[in-house]
Automatic annotation (TrEMBL):
Gene3D superfamilies: lambda repressor-like DNA-binding domains (1.10.260.40). Residues 15-69 form the HTH cro/C1-type domain. InterPro entries: Cro/C1-type_HTH, Lambda_DNA-bd_dom_sf, TransReg_Diox_bact_type. It comes from the Bacteria. Keywords: DNA-binding. This is Helix-turn-helix transcriptional regulator. Pfam families: HTH_3 (PF01381).
């Protein structure tokens, strides 16, 4: 029997958890994503490695960021693509409509970008005198 990767167990467990939180059956999620029911079951159990395209479809259906699934699946480096807890919370909130989620995320991202743009550039290091003297 082939050994399962803990990375894939993690993404599969996360997908299963998000699916249950969204109160979707495996069959409903399969229909929303266009992924077969058996294949989706294997992903959730960590038996199959989902492609980036499948992860993107799942992210959209589960209202989570595709990047967070890519990081969990080992496709992206978590240090290069940190996930925002604010974005995750907004996307996970079932009381918000899709339109409201998008508006909140747009406002949040504009504030983050504005703050990043207002940070001063790091000062260059002073030149070191290498002459003997």
């Amino acid at each position: 029997m082939a050994r399962r990767s803990s990375t894939f167990d993690s993404v599969g467990e996360y997908i299963a958890d998000r699916r249950r939180s969204a109160e979707l059956t495996l069959r409903q999620l399969a229909e929303l994503t266009g992924v077969s029911n058996p294949y989706l079951s294997q992903i959730e159990r960590g038996l199959r490695r989902p492609s980036a395209e499948v992860l993107q479809q799942l992210a959209k259906a589960l209202r989570v960021s595709a990047e967070s699934l890519y990081v969990r699946a080992g496709i992206l480096d978590p240090e290069d693509h940190p996930t925002s807890t604010v974005e995750t919370a907004v996307l996970a909130d079932g009381s918000l409509s899709e339109r409201h989620k998008q508006v909140l995320l747009d406002v949040y991202r504009s504030f983050v970008a504005e703050d990043a743009a207002s940070l001063p550039d790091p000062a260059p290091e002073p030149a070191r005198d290498t002459s003997a003297g």
